[in-house]
Write a structure and sequence with these properties.
The protein is α/β, with parallel strands linked by helices and 393 residues long. The chain has 17 helices and 13 strands. The strands form two sheets. Strands 3-2-1-4-5-6-7 form a seven-stranded parallel beta sheet, sandwiched between helices. The model has no long low-confidence stretch (mean pLDDT 94).
Length: 393
């Protein structure tokens, strides 16, 4: 098959979940198909980034979208009562470039990621599949519940527009995919049961158990892109609400918050017992440097890659129901789940004190991700869907 993949961001480096998903899907699909990649980018794509992705693509076309144009499109969409996100990723330059690339490639099927790409691909008669990735409307609704003032109003507007956009996707695409069942259930359409579940996976060669010599410098690690609001909220919740309860029982406990682009409201959490590292060259070092991964997600949607990666490295994990609803790990066997500061802190303290519990949880979690979360298996399902749709050409 000739697959034209349309993305709202260049899929490298892998500091965001949508990039990680797209990169690994491209890598797997390229094993037996011709992959052509079209991306919109708001930042300069460095040559060394393209060098990583190029071996998996027959051709790559990147369109740099000027931010001024994007902000004007956001304003235009507001007055047209359309999703602000769709405006931010849309432009005449991108549409013209995709039209030319599509004419050049003559693909058997178009595979686009997220509703942000809908304005670009909706007009093509070529068979089309869209990956919702996760339910952006649910993500926005959860963020709206914690917002105040003008930001609450903006999120409420965007929530309503995203609900309408997700509904309309059923009219445009021949098939739809998503990352998890809770996200599928949250899509506002009576046919949301038709959405195919394509989970993420783990690069088991890269994320594998590693020994740590000496005493680990941290008890807890939390990681992720620290400009992403759900990660910011989780980091602040962990530092401000959970850690004081942990310190009441274990005064020497240390927390590492690691990840790219930390906002000021994350960096300000740093103190004698909390380290905010910012971007790191190898996130595996962060996982290995702590006794456990804590992911106390309060908002957001989709599947938390940090949990998959830590489990693959035999690191025990503590999370919340919001995150585990998509993961489907067994509480108290493969993961610990706590939805209040007191419950979460109790799990953290228990793991600090109990090496046997840490080892049991780590081993069970390791086995769980190897059985359930393989990129090759997930992308084989995706390839079947693309083949089914392409026959309609």
């Amino acid at each position: 098959m000739k697959i034209l993949i349309v993305l709202p961001r260049f899929p490298y480096p892998l500091e965001k979940g949508d990039k990680l998903r797209a990169f690994n899907q491209i890598k797997e699909l390229s094993r037996s198909n011709d992959v052509y990649l079209f991306c919109v980018s708001h930042i300069k794509v460095l040559p060394e980034w393209e060098e990583v992705v190029a071996p998996f693509c027959k051709a790559i076309r990147v369109v740099r979208s000027p931010k001024l144009v994007n902000y004007l499109n956001v304003l235009r969409n507001y007055f047209r009562t359309k999703s602000l996100q769709l405006g931010y990723w849309d432009s005449q330059r991108a549409r013209k470039a995709l039209k030319a690339f599509h004419r050049e490639v003559q693909p058997d099927v178009i595979y686009s990621q997220m509703v942000r790409t809908m304005p670009l691909v909706s007009r093509y008669a070529t068979p089309k599949v869209m990956d919702f990735q996760d339910a952006l409307s649910m993500n926005t609704e959860r963020r709206m519940e914690h917002a105040r003032g003008i930001w609450h109003y903006i999120l409420h507007f965007e929530f309503k527009m995203l609900r309408s956009t997700e509904y309309n996707a059923f009219k445009i695409f021949d098939a739809l995919t998503i990352i998890s069942e809770p996200d599928s259930d949250a899509i506002p359409h009576r046919r949301n049961g038709d959405i195919r579940i394509i989970p993420n996976g783990v690069d088991f060669d890269y994320f594998s158990p590693r020994a740590y010599t000496g005493v680990r410098p941290y008890d807890i690690v939390f990681c992720g892109n620290m400009s992403y609001e759900p990660n910011i909220r989780a980091a602040r919740y962990l530092a401000r609400d959970v850690m004081p309860l942990v310190w009441a029982e274990e005064p020497g406990a240390r927390l590492l918050i690691a990840g790219a682009n930390p906002k000021h409201n994350v960096t300000e959490l740093a103190d004698a017992q909390i380290v905010v590292s910012g971007s790191v060259p190898d996130i595996r070092e962060c996982y290995a440097s702590a006794l456990m991964l804590a992911a106390p997600m309060q908002t957001g949607s989709g599947l938390q890659n940090k949990l998959l990666e830590a489990m693959a490295m035999r690191i025990p994990c503590v999370t919340t129901t919001i995150a585990n609803d998509s993961l489907h790990a067994t509480p108290d066997e493969e993961i610990l789940v706590g939805d209040t500061p007191m419950a979460f802190a109790a799990h953290v303290v228990s793991l600090i004190r109990n090496a046997d519990q840490r080892n049991r949880l780590a081993e069970n979690g390791y086995r769980f991700v190897h059985e359930k979360y393989s990129w090759s298996a997930a992308c084989a399902k995706l390839e079947t869907i693309l083949e089914e749709v392409s026959i309609k050409k």
